[in-house]
Model the fold of this input.
Amino acid sequence: MISFHEARNKILEGIKLLPSEKCRLEDLLGRVLAQDVTASFDIPPKDNSAMDGFAVIASDVAGASEQRPVTLQVIEDVPAGRVAAKSLKPGQAIRIMTGAQMPEGADAVVPVELTSKGIQNIEVRILKGVKQGANVRRQGEDVTTGQLLIAKGTRLRPQEVGLIASLGLTEVMVFKQPLVGIISSGNEVAAPGQPLKPGQIYDANRFSIGGQVKEAGALVRDYGIIADDLAKIKETLNQAARECDVIITSGGVSVGDYDLMKQALSELGQMNFWQVKQKPGKPLAYGHINGKPVVGLPGNPVSSMVVCDQYVRPLLLAMQGAANMFRVQVTAHSNQGIRKQAGRTEFLRAKVKWQDGAYQAVLTGPQGSGILTSMVQAEGLMILPEECEGVKVGDMVEVELF
Ligand code: AMP
Ligand code: MG
Done:
């Protein structure tokens, strides 16, 4: 039996990077960049006002105070989106709105709160001096021309999409999304919406796994539920291997009489490994059909989700060229003792609390591999490495946050 890291490395070693394609701004969220994004101009493109107020020459108003205001002549009004026609001379001010380009000659902005009206709109009284550059956003203070803004391999979040838009781009190159075929298996597994016959359970996995696959940026093709019937399993696997980039099954990989997934995989392609020193998810089967990776997840709803998170998610992100395919980990103090023997990696469902300047990890109740509510309450997975021989209260543990 191989260890967790060996198994994951075996899966990641054989990755085929997907080709790239153009993608419109509207569809960029969650996609992985296949190009560097660099700035073709400065942002802001020109100095502009950070406040609603008056553009002034700082030396004109240096000594201003409420007792001794400085009165300036207002020569123009500049809303955002317009550029002043006049340039400022000593003794003058231009009324300016946030975001409007700084007028020629001005070198600071006095916020409107620090002014009072002079004669109608022709004059303004400045009640406080400002320094040169005060309340001015400098040209290029956010982005300078030629700067690398977002590197190839970055998975795009809303802020990156916003930055791309602020460069005026309408499309960029991203890696294609893997199409993932998802198959549930088992004579006892019924589709939600159908009446349950005695001995049946509803299919959770196609939907939990489907969600995880989508969260990893991939596309789902649903092959439904197949009975524990070798011919039917092979037929569906074959079809999925023709149509998809990756195939994920759940159920049928243990050692029971009806666990036919391994046999089907071996007969149609090859099985690279089966069984990993881990809990939950020991009977994980991995192989290829038609050159396409096939991940045979165990049937238990928690096992299948944990294995999907730890193996399939990085696999799908790597296929999309993501530079970063693993989750963020925090170190936390365990709030309880945990029994464990060395020899297998364990993934426990946990919450984290910030307490007295450190994270504390709290398990989400019973940890059985069929108890899906342990996942529902979890904020992440506590990962106890193979060599760990148990945890005492207060020991440091790693928690990977969802
Ligand atoms: P298996 O790996 O086929 O032996 O299944 C292990 C356990 O997971 C059994 O109790 C199954 O009933 C259950 N199971 C298998 N597939 C699903 C599924 N799609 N949704 C919910 N539970 C499942
Ligand atoms: Mg089964």
Helices lie at 4-13, 58-61, 158-166, 205-215, 230-243, 261-268, 301-319, 373-376.
